[in-house]
Here is the input.
Amino acid sequence: MNILTIERHIAETQRRFPEARGNFSALMNNIAFAAKIISSHVNRAGLVNILGETGEENVQGERVQKLDLYANETIIRIIGASGQVCAMGSEENETMIPVEDIHEGGRYVLLFDPLDGSSNIDVNVSIGTIFSILRRVSPHSGPAQERDLLQPGFRQVAAGYVIYGSSTVFVYTAGMGVHGFTLDPSCGEFLLSNENIRTPKRASVYSVNEGYARYWDDASRRVVDAFRLGTEDRPPLTSRYIGSLVADFHRNLLCGGVFFYPAVSKSPDVAPRPKLRLLYEAAPLAYIVDQAGGYASDGVGPILRRQPSGLHERVPLIIGSHDDVHFAEGILHETMANPASDQSLG
Ligand code: AHM
Ligand code: MG
Here is the structure.
């Protein structure tokens, strides 16, 4: 069997574009490099209590950092010094992260959630990094601007995620299918393990935090009822919710499933707001699922068409198997067209 590393896979993809100058490939390789470093740290997370609490010095005299901040700094340091990006945006940083212009100025911007699902770190549940690459749109002669980051998802050049789980897996798309690579810790290389991933059109699993059911509007409740109880022409689905978006998404991508994080409408003052970020979570995963034959919606329309209004904009999210996301979107549309049917509004 042919063994293909992620570097060779990216290089072979680049060969199809004779005009490519190698910047994009170098950026992808640097992201994979950052992922390996974060992965090795995540694997040692359980030793924190033995080697030193976060904020303290460990036995080597180094300061022990919170893992999500460590992941954030690792990506900023590696990608910031690479010369391929002119700016970055991170879920952990309030504002745009400018990049020192060391070469002629990077042609890309990188958006990322350094460690998604970080509340799961202490209990050894899978967590991950999500990223999105866009082309710079402001003039290359001046500094990068926020509008370089605030682009709708359909303009992404590439998107991907890394899961630090039972294995470390790197999944990405650059618009030519979705490909997955598993880290072989013995040689430190990501090896092609899932070529051209296609997600099943119909879900077998639904993933939603039902603990928030009391905050949902009637339409969201109808969607979840249809998933769990089935309808005339749809069998009931099984429930799986890890609470790490990357991990829930990955399972659903491979096995068929729909992940739903509803908007809340009834008591926005007390209810949790939609939590997922358009730029760092929803849009990159929407691009990946689209390339795998699935669909992502904010309940109104495609996530990929949504123009971001701010770096940390949050959105409702329905993502996964094509037929089930459209089915849920249809129920939400019906209620929007006929608000009188929703007892929870007003
Ligand atoms: P984070 O990026 O701050 O870790 O938060 C996002 C996470 C997702 O991974 C997960 O799907 C979601 O929060 C879980 O939220 P909830 O606990 O509200 O169900
Ligand atoms: Mg997150």
Observations:
- Residues 91, 113, 116-119, 209, 243-245, 272, 275 surround AHM (ligand 1) (CB under 6 Å).
- The chain has two domains: 6-194, 205-337.
- The chain has a mean pLDDT of 90.
- DSSP finds nine helices and 13 strands in the chain.
